[in-house]
Amino acid sequence: MRLLAVFSLTSLVSSRWLGVALGVCAGVGACAPTSEDAIGQSKPAHVTVPAEPSLRRLLARHYRRSVGRLLGSAAQAAASPPADTQLNGFTTIAASQLSFNDSLVGAYESSARAIAAAAALDTKRIAELVGCKPVSAVDTNCFGSFVDTFGRLAWRRPVTSAEREDYVALAKQGAAVKADFFAGVELAISAILQSPNFLYQVEVGRPNPTRSDVRDLTGYEVATRLSFLLAGVTPDAALLDAAERGELDDEAGVRKWASVLVALPESATAVRDFFEELLVLGELPTLAKDPNLFPEFSPELAMSMREEALRIVEDVVRRDAPITEILTTSRTFLDAPLASFYGVGAPAEAWGVTTLPEAQGRSGVLTSAAVMTRQAHSTTTSATYRGLFVMERFLCTTMPPPPPGVVTNLPPSSAAPTLRERLKVHQADPVCRACHYMADGLGLTFENFDAVGKFRETENGAAIDTRAAIELLGTWDAPRGLAEVLAASDAVKSCMLQQLYRYAAGHVEQKSEWPAINELLATWSAEGHSFRALMVDLASHELFRRVGTPQ
Amino acid sequence: MTRRRLPYELVLPRRTFLRGLVGGTAVALALPVLEVMLHDDGTRHADGSPLPLRLMTWMWGNGCRLEHWVPKATGPDYELSPALKSLAPHKAEFSVLTGFKNPVAGRRGHHDGIAGLFSGYPFIALDPAGAPYASKFGGKSIDQQATDLIGASTMFKSLQIGVTKRHVTNQGPTLETMSHRGPGQPLPMERDPQALYDKLFGAFVPVPGTGNDTTSLRVATLDAVMKDAKRLHGLVSTTDRQRLEHHLDSLFDLQKQILAIPPQCDLPMKPGKLDYNADGSEPLAAINAVMSKLVAVAFACDLTRAVSYMFTAPSGGQQFDLLTPSQFPEFPGATDYSHADQHMVSHMVAPYEQEFIHRCAEFCMQNFATLLGELKAVPEGNATMLDNMCVLAGSDVCEGWSHSESDYPIIVAGRAGGRLKSGVGHYRSTEGASITDIGFACLKAVVPNPDALTEYGGEVEGFTGKTKTPCNVILE
Question: Which pLDDT belongs to residue B408?
Fold first, then answer.
């Protein structure tokens, strides 16, 4: 803490320094800022070198939707890709780092075979993809036409002649067995969907005319990045055609297409994808809550909670309001079960816009039942989880683990009825306080919401105190106060951009990428912090259209 | 293609399996004529070659209460401690090892423990400033090290099984699975008994309307896919080249599985669906009973020789729904934690909460006893399956409340074909030997050429779990 003290409170709350000062509380017992420069800190212009490319496995949701776009809804229903895992808070980071294994390969094989079998029944779509009338069961030209068309759509780039030859040979082998051309098509579909060219987002790029340390992504690779980030699905034929025409080879062209994509309905899904991960809502429906304490909690209600939080975000994004409004807004969206859970009347129309009673003091996604439920134990609230959630997700900082042997000996609730009183040990012991002061302080703000996010005024019969005064952040009385502080903080905007970049790029930002990220931050500021503007800015920035030259 | 030799055909108590596991329908497969393949003395194949040995790792999460775990006496005649009492029927078949330390402690308790105990390598922290904490294993887990030496010829090189689904999913691969082919290569655990059944036996159930053609076309498909992966190989970074090699290895393994001749053993019946209970808890004991049986069958059919088994999860939120307040009459008016996440309770340092944690460990040992019972029930020659394997069981922390790392609860069961000593009973290391010494001994116990192994574990980013001194106390 000694080093943090050099920053004055007021300057931190309103400056980008917060993320810098906090972003280093990462080593065991070493809560000290580094003297290195960081995101948000103004520095002389440096040259940006993007990270080297990494093969990224298609996320399960991208795989499913892409199969739907390529082969129709029956094929999509037959898809069963393996589940995703997370690293550093995002599935995209894990997908870019982890390797395939036997279990994954087996799952993709079964999935591809099932998809191909289902797709074969959709003769209309198959006929479109084949594009010619086979003259025999083993019609080489006609198979070639199919491999060219379907391969290009599935692999998001034209098929090379060597690849064409291999897949035509395979299709003919499949056709020969049953003396049926379409059996060959089915086999080729299964193979093309098992190919690394489909399962990975491949980025090879091409040499940059002036720099040897970076490579420019090809138009097709840019199309792929744009489509998965902005639409959550494989690029459609129109976007691939644009890539083929060279329309994605410069910033203006990419900006134009990015603006088209963020206006499409698919974009709303892609935004939800990101926020579902950012707000850690994925596992909500399988969360366990003590049925004796919380009899109203069920997987169905949890799904409604998740829907509410995502609709709050969607609403802010659609209105192009500053994205920080997701923290402060009083607009919310409920279905009947959730309304009854919150203790209000059912909405006239499910998921129509509404507000919750003033007395509950709700504030955007922060106090949504979804977040409050996710960031709690199965029987009680957790100030540490909730505080850490705010720190990690909105301030881009984290807390080191407790050193081994530390006694986390909280007194029983009979002796200390409220969590604030029980957590006083964290504050009294300097070892604990060094890291807990912020997490607990933030987390206790939410104590009016129990482990499933229901409003309460007392705990074990004692009044709940939600006031906080936290060094570096500020003071507030209740969640709305905290939300205002966060919304006004540059650190939060900087963090939002960092998070989107991590998610979009599939890695935690590298130091060599900071100059570009700072540039983006400045541009975004001038645009009133609209999330869609940020998506377009990021997607069209050089940082996103280049990769480092692989070592 | 040569038919694989399966020494267990003769001795597998197939009627057991025909009675079924939990429910479902029986799968009838024609049984080949059984051949007598064992040597007269029942300890070798007829041709004198040794029976295969297997390695299994078994873990439960969040540790124990040492005061109820560590037996009071040492040596073969020790009295089982309260936490261990349900293992009484198998007391002759396992050693209790206490007083062993993690050579790399203090970085992140639960991560330190699972990595140290089950791989010998310190974990790799993925912790860039401000991003949520994550870590991955620093090297191959012990089951994968064993797999390379004993499992290459089996249908599945190894199996990964989990019982609880309430495992931590946001801290990286280290806490998600006990099996890692290497850093960045976590092997996911199968947590659904029906899916495990399908994985093990699904390929042997003939699908109507398909024949050898399907097999050859699947193989041809994978050939095409492998060719793509090889073409890509030259275009990507060094890191990605390694990842593609892992991908290629797995494609090759799948081809081998497709081409494999089904083993000649009886199929058990497919288990019924076992998922969350209506109240959100899990039928842990029921899932464990089915999974334990499936493990025994998989070994008996020689489908695999290495299994990792996560009963409850490190730092996990598993619920012990049977541990209601009525089970604790000595604590009148006690809080009901039967639907609480165990990790949370583990950090509550009051007498009742810590008694609860002890009872969780006790429950885990009851379930470990179930597994040992299954393994012992399969005769092999004049011994049992358990006699031909090594089971390394332990937890990710010593005591959960403090994340302590200096006295892990560890059990080594089985005789590994006579390589593991019997009659050790309880051994307590007074000098705080390394937990990696135990892993080293377990690996030596099962590999074909133990003398060739001169060290175990490794170094990662300046931290080392490496050892050259196996725990000789348990080795014959």
Answer: 97
Whether the CB-CB separation of A9 and A472 falls below 8 Å is answered with yes
pLDDT confidence of residue A39: 56
Q: Strands (DSSP E) along B267-349, which ranges?
A: 306-310
Is any Cβ of chain B less than 8 angstroms from the Cβ of A102? yes
Q: CB B348 to CB A410 under 8 A?
A: yes
Average pLDDT over residues A230-251: 98
Please report the DSSP string for B243-275 in residue order: HHHHHHHHHHHHHHHHHPPPPSSPPPPPPPP--
| Residue A131 region by backbone torsions, left for phi larger than 0, else alpha for psi between -120 and 50, else beta | left
**Do residues A360 and A319 share a domain?**
yes
Residues A302 and A185 in one domain: no
- Who contacts B108 (Cβ-Cβ below 8 Å, separation ≥6)? A401, B123, B125, B133, B135
Where in the sequence is the domain holding A287, given as residue range(s)? 272-381
Stretches where chain B sits below pLDDT 50 are 1-36, 208-211
The answer as to whether A263 is a domain residue is: no
Instruction: Specify the 3-state DSSP secondary structure of A109.
Output: helix
Contact A166, A172 (CB under 8 A): no
Question: Are A3 and A84 in the same domain?
Answer: no
Element counts in chain B: helices (H) and strands (E): 12, 13
Residue A435's pLDDT is 78
For the segment A353-382, the average pLDDT, to the nearest whole number, is 96
CA count, 13 A, side-chain hemisphere, A39: 34
Query: What does the block give as tokens for A126?
Result: 């198959």
Q: Identify the CATH number of the domain defined by range B14-204+268-474.
A: 3.40.720
**Total domains, chain A:** 3
Domain boundaries, chain B: 14-204+268-474, 206-266
CA distance B250 to A148: 28
Contact B130 A194 (CB under 8 A): no
DSSP letter for each residue of A369-414: HHHHHHTB-SSSB-HHHHHHHHHHHHS----PPPPTT----PPPTT
Question: Has residue A214 got a pLDDT over 70?
Answer: yes
Cross-chain CB nearest to A99 (options B160, B185, B235) = B185
Query: Complex ipTM above 0.85?
Result: yes
Last residue of a domain, one of A201, A230, A260: A201
Q: Is B160 on the interface with A (CB under 8 A)?
A: yes
Does any domain span residue A537?
no
Q: What is the pLDDT of residue A36?
A: 45
Residues in chain B with CB shorter than 8 Å from the CB of A187 are 217, 221
Is the pLDDT at A34 greater than 70, yes or no? no
Same domain for A152 and A186? yes
